[in-house]
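Bumping with the actual sequence this time:
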Amino acid sequence: MSARQKPRRLPPFSGVLVLVMASTGLVVVDLTIVAIGLPLISADIADGASAESVVVTYMVATGALTQIVGSLSDRWGRRSLFLAGIGVFTLSSLAATAAPDLLWLNIARVAQGAGAAAIMANGIPLLADRYAGEERDLAIGAWGSFATAAGLLAPVFGGVLAETFGWRAVFAVNLPLGAAAWALAVRVLPRAPGTGGAGASGAGAARRTDWLGGLLLMLGLGAATLLMLRPGETPWSARDTAVLITACAATAAFLAVQLRAPAPTLELRMFTRPAFSGAMLAVLLSRVLTIGGSVYLVLYFSDGLGMSPTGAGLLMTPIFLAQIVMGMVGSKLIGTRPPGLVIGAGYALKGVGFAALALLITPGTPWWALVVPLLAWGAGGGIAGAPVMAVAVRVTAPERVGMVAGTVSTLASLGAGVGTAALGAVFALQGGPGAEAVTDGARAVLGVSAALAAVAVLVAVTLIGPRRVPGRAPAPAAQGPAPAERRPVPGTEDPVPPAEEDDEDDSFRART
């Protein structure tokens, strides 16, 4: 085997990979960094109103629009929507920085969410267009690990910015980063439409756009997000009942429309494939555990151990460091091992980390005793999380990659909300004021998280079996004189070699 044919340990460097990772990190950080500055926002411009709406509006807009934008990118092309997303996100960050009152800030946050949706929905498709074979798995793994790690790092970054420069700094930091990302995107993104974008423009694309389904999805996810973010200590009200009915009715109507729409926002038949359904469940559970679990662990660090916000954030660094490193390992392993077993092993290690933390934490536990379980948590999340994205792309036709990216991002946002709300209820049953009560609540959350990790192991080994995940397409031959000649032609490469497809694969492709 020649040197250039040896398997790669890292995805080949490219401007597209750097762009997608940096832009996604910017969006993910903004999802949580603002929460650190809420007390300062409330004291400055809220005028007695709830500053939590600043977080809610962003989550609603991002979660509701990502699936829609992902489906549109399959028809309209990646480049224009990605550039528009970066531009809208950056300009709305400028508007948020200058906000004179809470209403202005919330409007800017809705616009930020729309830009974030366009960025998130195009990340995986851009990587799928640029890479193939093992390189694609590694690139998607790097993207997923970096995005998760960025979310875990955000509390540290946000705490330093807010404490040093004030709450406006958490929005102002997006301006130079967004401008740099936009300039890089103009330079490195191909002008030709990506997979699914060729030939889908103008009035023809508009006629094939599922506008009704998109509106119903926005309404359903928006209502569900509002319900999940309601204060847990307040009694259930008639308004909450109305929001619940709206969420259920809109979601049911959306699913009904998708079964009949000629170009649906979400192709429901993708879920008839066990591997795809297993990957989506794994995405949902991953965010429930990572975001929901970390919220109450940080609360234990601050109220149980008496650490400062910055110190509590720094103690989370073992998780994101292990997540990044082991994410690449997980992406590499699925080239030689069954993906379901790799994902299951990752969740098992993550569950061990949760269980060990539940056993160790007390109001007097030294911080250094928690480092090894935190490393296990991060390492397991990296091993499990990165291959999930690659599996979802492998079992999907190229013209559906944007739709899959939207589904992944939507379920990730939903999982973050569900995890925070559901594990918050667990925390409230055990927790209360005082270090001992906070520790009891965190211990209960970690115990439930360990049980959910066991469920994720079962999902992975059952649904993502070897025969249900087709073999990876070989990477393009590395003998051309220019990198551009080694890239797959958008819209033509097939992630599933015909010789390795089983009858189920053939049936699915015939239907879609």
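The tokens above came from a reply further down the thread. The longest helix spans residues 133-165.
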